[in-house]
């Protein structure tokens, strides 16, 4: 456990936590944020991330990133940055590990499908779904639903992308009893987790896109940062094989992004002079940030990935299939709830409104892994499959 003296004054100190919605006796050997992290890691939703993919469906290949490996990469980057800034690494890690729990199977294609299906019933958003998992859907503890995480961890998950001015229903109802102050910025630790997410996904999507041969190294030579890095690695290691070349460039790109973030954040901290974590939240802008030049360069990389990877015809075929699978599953379960497993049928109150029933069906479908969604679809729609 880090000593309090090793934290900056604007870090989140575990002994100053605002507590849990349901008070508990705390651990004698772990801080409250370490305990939050451990609850997230041991949750069922976290284990499912192993079979939820980012861009590719799970059977496309074992080497591509999943939501689980992505979350671990984000957590590693967030811890490294937090240590350099003297922030609470455990809190940053907890937010990083939790941030993708609400993602559907099949990545953004699955989310698009559920957004369409739920449009008439209050909509669907993976950040809101993450919040529902952490506060309602995890059913493991005898005394409460959800994980009963600390105020700081829940605040970080809710606001890691910035203030939430128009919260969705679950978050709005929860905050009536345990106010997360959604209209302010999150802690510096949560802001670190958010940008660690950006660093991780840009870099691993470049890596996965090259491995899938959706684009080639030659296509990257004119992009900011990358061209110079490829030339530098080739000069240092003449004749280097392609796999090692890509890895060396990616690790240098991560390093460049992290160092830029550290430099810009230290500049902003020096200008703002926050005396505590509350003053971080009260600032008019995030304190953790990239420089303007790096933000521009990252947007160029995102634009490249959007055109050459996310909209590649091979990926389009995958996402088209994924959208159909989830939409058809949702429709069947909503129209014929007796096809749901018994424990999910028990959650349904048939006298309740259509919106409540649709939300429960969305919770069930969103919680599926890629593999389970495909197997369920096969069972329901292939007449030759034995039940």
From TrEMBL:
Keywords: Hydrolase
KW Hydrolase (keyword) present: yes
Family stated for the protein in its record: Belongs to the dGTPase family. Type 2 subfamily.
Keyword set includes Kinase: no
Organism, scientific name: Fodinicurvata halophila
Name of a matching Pfam family: HD
Record-linked CDD domains: HDc
Name of the protein described by the UniProt record: Deoxyguanosinetriphosphate triphosphohydrolase-like protein
Domain called HD: residue spans: 67-202
């Amino acid at each position: 456990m880090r000593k309090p003296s090793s934290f900056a004054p604007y870090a989140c100190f575990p002994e100053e936590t605002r507590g849990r919605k349901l008070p508990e006796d705390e651990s004698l050997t772990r801080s409250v944020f370490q305990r939050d992290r451990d609850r997230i890691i041991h949750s069922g939703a976290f284990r499912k991330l192993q079979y939820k993919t980012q861009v590719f469906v799970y059977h496309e290949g074992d080497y591509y990133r999943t939501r689980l490996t992505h979350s671990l990469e984000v957590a590693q980057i967030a811890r490294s940055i937090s240590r350099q800034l003297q922030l609470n690494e455990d809190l940053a890690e907890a937010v990083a590990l939790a941030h993708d729990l609400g993602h559907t199977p099949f990545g953004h294609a699955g989310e698009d499908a559920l957004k369409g299906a739920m449009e008439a019933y209050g909509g669907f958003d993976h950040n809101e779904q993450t919040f529902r998992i952490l506060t309602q859907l995890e059913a493991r503890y005898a005394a409460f639903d959800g994980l009963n995480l600390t105020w700081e961890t829940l605040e970080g998950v809710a606001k890691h992308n910035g203030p939430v001015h128009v919260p969705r229903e679950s978050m709005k109802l929860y905050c009536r009893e345990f106010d997360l102050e959604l209209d302010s910025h999150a802690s510096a630790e949560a802001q670190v987790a958010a940008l660690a997410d950006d660093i991780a996904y840009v870099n691993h999507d470049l890596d996965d896109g090259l491995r899938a041969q959706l684009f080639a190294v030659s296509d990257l030579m004119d992009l900011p940062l990358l061209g110079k890095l490829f030339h530098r690695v080739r000069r240092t290691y003449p004749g280097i094989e392609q796999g090692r070349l890509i890895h060396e460039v990616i690790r240098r790109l991560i390093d460049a992004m992290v160092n830029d973030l550290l430099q810009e954040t230290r500049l902003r901290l020096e200008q703002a002079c926050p005396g505590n974590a509350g003053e971080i939240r009260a600032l008019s802008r995030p304190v953790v940030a990239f420089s303007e030049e790096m933000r521009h360069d990252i947007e160029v990389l995102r634009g490249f990935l959007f055109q050459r990877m996310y909209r590649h015809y091979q990926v389009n075929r995958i996402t088209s299939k994924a959208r159909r699978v989830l939409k058809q599953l949702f429709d069947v379960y909503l129209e014929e709830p007796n096809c749901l497993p018994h424990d999910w049928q028990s959650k349904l109150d048939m006298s309740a409104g259509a919106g409540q029933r649709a939300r429960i069906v969305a919770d069930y479908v969103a919680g599926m892994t890629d593999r389970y969604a495909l197997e369920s679809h096969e069972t329901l729609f292939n007449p030759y499959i034995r039940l």
